[in-house]
Amino acid sequence: MPRSNWLKEVFHCQKPIIAMCHFGAMPGDPGFDHKGGMKKVVEWAIKDLTALQNGGVDAVMFSNEFSLPYMTKVGTVTVASMARIIGELMPHLKVPFGVNVLWDPVASLDLAAATGAKFIREIFSGVYASDFGIWNTNCGETVRHQYAIGAQNVKLLFNIVPEAAQYLVDRDIVSIAKSTVFNDRPDALCVSGLTAGVETDVQILKKVKEALPETIVFANTGVRLENLGKQLEFADGAVVGTTFKYEGKFENHVDEERVKAFMNKVKKFREE
After folding, report:
1. Rg of the chain on CA atoms, in Å
2. For residues 188 and 217, is the Cβ–Cβ distance under 8 A?
3. Which of 181-185, 199-203, 241-245 shows the lowest per-residue confidence on average (mean pLDDT)?
4. Axis crossing angle, helix 139-148 with helix 105-115, rounded to the nearest 10
5. Mean pLDDT of all residues in 178-188
6. What percent of the chain stands above pLDDT 90?
7. Buried (b) or exposed (e) across 94-123, using 16+ Cβ within 10 A?
8. Beta-strand pair 133-135/97-100
9. Does residue 75 have a pLDDT over 70?
10. For the chain, what are the domain ranges?
11. From which residue to which does any coiled coil extend (predicted)?
12. Are the CB atoms for 121 and 100 separated by under 8 Å?
């Protein structure tokens, strides 16, 4: 299927809003609550998923957002824990979902294959100086793994502006986007701010979309009620996390009323 055509098949709408459902710290993570255990992590995830779906989001993406500090090669325990959580969420799921094991694309593909996720978001290509050390990737190896495990229908959302990282050499974002599309055949590109919750630069979104009009481009961070119009003017959709939380704070639970207000505005934007 052409890259520009799969959005409606997966999300059943144009300009989809993919809501982040952040998992709490899990076994192996420094912040794991040993007293509350996995039961507490699952309860938190069910509460957030319920608020997101009641609020009207188009899809959700499950991620180990509180596995700080992140790893570029995660342990088996992380993937196993996330699979357990998603398994318990299955009876509650009403929208398409994706997964993101931060920041390990092979682990994300394994989790997607095991759970039936429709898409993953990851850092698939490039070499970076990051908060996690020198960050290298091997897209060819990752995609071959995707086919080896039978996950070829899982859509790959390439984050080309990694959070808390930058290319080891100075490269213009448009040239990065163009070479990524030519060499790696992504299903979509994600353009981000510096960290979770930081607004994506609209001018960068505009430049990338104008350079690659046939490629799906998502605004990946910092889309809020007050800026969603200008973000969606150029982006084909958005990944939204922090703004859906109580008081717009990263560490809080999802606020259903904030989700409803946001999605009502999105629906009006689509109508216009």
Report:
1. 17
2. yes
3. 199-203
4. 20
5. 97
6. 86
7. ebbbbbbbbbbbbbbbbbbbbbebbbbbbb
8. unpaired
9. yes
10. 20-271
11. none
12. yes
DSSP for 117-136 reads: -SEEEE--S--EEETTEEE-
Q: In the CATH scheme, what is the code of domain 20-271? A: 3.20.20.390
Q: Is the dihedral of CA 241, 143, 206, 96 positive or negative?
A: negative
Q: How many residues does the chain have?
A: 272
Q: Please state the φ and ψ torsions of residue 203, each to the nearest 5 degrees.
A: -65, -35
Where in the chain does DSSP place strands (E)? Answer: 17-22, 59-63, 97-100, 119-122, 128-130, 133-135, 155-159, 165-167, 188-191, 217-219, 237-240
CA neighbor of 198 nearest in space, from 160, 229, 240, 168:
240
Average pLDDT of the segment spanning 124-142: 94
Sign of the four-CA dihedral 55, 247, 228, 46: negative
Residue tagged 């990051």 (tokens) = 130
Contact 9, 1 (CB under 8 A): yes
pLDDT tens-place string over residues 203-226: 889 999 999 999 999 999 889 999
DSSP calls for 74-120: --HHHHHHHHHHHHHHGGG--S-EEEE-TT-HHHHHHHHHHHT-SEE
According to DSSP, residue 245 is labeled B
pTM: 0.95
> What single letter denotes the amino acid at residue 151?
A
pLDDT at 1: 38
**Token reading at 164:** 């808390």
Structure confidence by residue, pLDDT tens digits, 229-251: 999 999 999 999 999 999 999 99
- Cα–Cα dist 192/207, whole Å: 14
pLDDT per residue over 78-101, tens digit each?
999 999 999 999 999 999 999 999
